[in-house]
Amino acid sequence: MTETTPYDAARARFTRQALARLVLCDHAADVADGAAGLVATGNDPDTGPGGRVSQAFQLAELAERALVSAVIYERERGSSWTEIAQYLGVGPAEAEERFASMLDDWNTAFEVPYRLDDTGRKRIPQLPTAAYDPAWACDRLDTWAGNRLILVNDQRPVSSGLVMAAPEELPSVNP
To answer: I want to staple 126 with a disulfide (CB 3.0 to 4.6 A). Which of 5, 109, 111, 171 is the partner?
Structure first.
């Protein structure tokens, strides 16, 4: 299914590198919010046995998702498997093998933006939400960062640093 999406024009303003960075920002915010839930102790009596382990396990899953997003971002910005592998403490071949399928999924989502659900009637976006609708993601993440990052003095702390598409890369619009 290669039909256009409602967000194609807005997404075209962003490079794939910027879209990957937005996904990483989105996943990092989820990790930060998940970690914050483990800090306060006031609700500990309300948590059943093992409840904090459940939260910590969910945090580890969120962190793994952020790691995958970081690898995709690094590949989009030109990092080699050797450069990535050194931070993972593994060899380049092992790093590539571990993340190749997720990178393939990322690349395929740009070619096939939707898949049909089990009924065959509803289209499901294949890109992560932050890459599918980057304007929404920028607004949400700029607000999130502005509310939580005390030492950042920027009106757009996330979106201002993104690598945008050059005007000649933008698709032409026929009147």
So the answer is: 109
